[in-house]
Design goal:
This protein has about 160 residues and is mainly alpha-helical. The chain contains six helices and no strands.
C-alpha cells in the first residue's frame, strides 16, 4: 500500500479504500438477489453487519491515514490546526488521570505544553482514533475533534429516538 505523501496520494488511497468497500457491498447485494428464498434472510442480516463494519472501518482508516499524511509532511505544530498540538498531550494526560505521577513528571508535562508548540508533529497515539465498536454520532464527533475537522454535518443528521415516539 502506498503512503500518503501528498494530498493527492491521500485522496487516492481513501478513494481506493471506499471503492473496495462499495464493491464488496455491491457483490453481497448481488448474491442476495441471486440466493434461494430460504437463504435471503440470513444474507440480509449479514449485509447489515457488513455495512456497519465497512462504515466503522472506513472512518478509522480515513483518520489513521490522515494522521499518517500529516506525519509525512514533517511540519511544526504551528503549521497545523491547534487540535493536532493538543492531541500530542492527550495520552500523557490520560496517564496522569489513571495513576499517580510524580510532581517532576507533572511539571515536565506543563513545561512541554507551554514550550512545545514549535515542535514537529511526528506521531499520533493510535488509541485516540477509537470507534469503540459503536460508531454513533457522539463517537464520530470525537474522532472529528481529534482530526481537527468540523462535525456539524453529523450533528445535523443525527437521528433522535425521541422523533420515533
Amino acid at each position: 500500500m502506498s503512503r500518503p505523501y501528498t494530498d493527492h496520494d491521500l485522496s487516492s488511497i481513501l478513494d481506493a479504500d471506499l471503492i473496495w468497500r462499495r464493491k464488496e457491498l455491491s457483490d453481497m447485494k448481488a448474491a442476495i438477489k441471486a440466493a434461494d428464498p430460504p437463504s435471503k434472510p440470513a444474507l440480509m442480516r449479514a449485509i447489515i453487519a457488513m455495512s456497519y463494519a465497512h462504515w466503522e472501518g472506513f472512518v478509522r482508516t480515513c483518520a489513521n491515514r490522515y494522521f499518517e499524511h500529516l506525519t509525512l509532511r514533517r511540519k511544526s505544530f504551528v503549521e497545523f490546526e491547534r487540535q493536532i498540538y493538543v492531541n500530542s498531550f492527550l495520552g500523557r494526560l490520560e496517564a496522569l488521570h489513571l495513576g499517580r505521577v510524580s510532581l517532576n513528571e507533572r511539571c515536565k508535562l506543563i513545561n512541554d505544553i507551554l514550550d512545545g508548540e514549535s515542535g514537529r508533529f511526528s506521531y499520533l497515539n493510535p488509541d485516540l482514533v477509537d470507534t469503540r465498536s459503536n460508531l454513533n454520532t457522539d463517537v464520530i464527533k470525537e474522532i472529528c475533534l481529534i482530526c481537527g475537522i468540523d462535525s456539524n454535518h453529523f450533528e445535523q443528521n443525527r437521528t433522535s429516538l425521541m422523533s420515533y415516539w
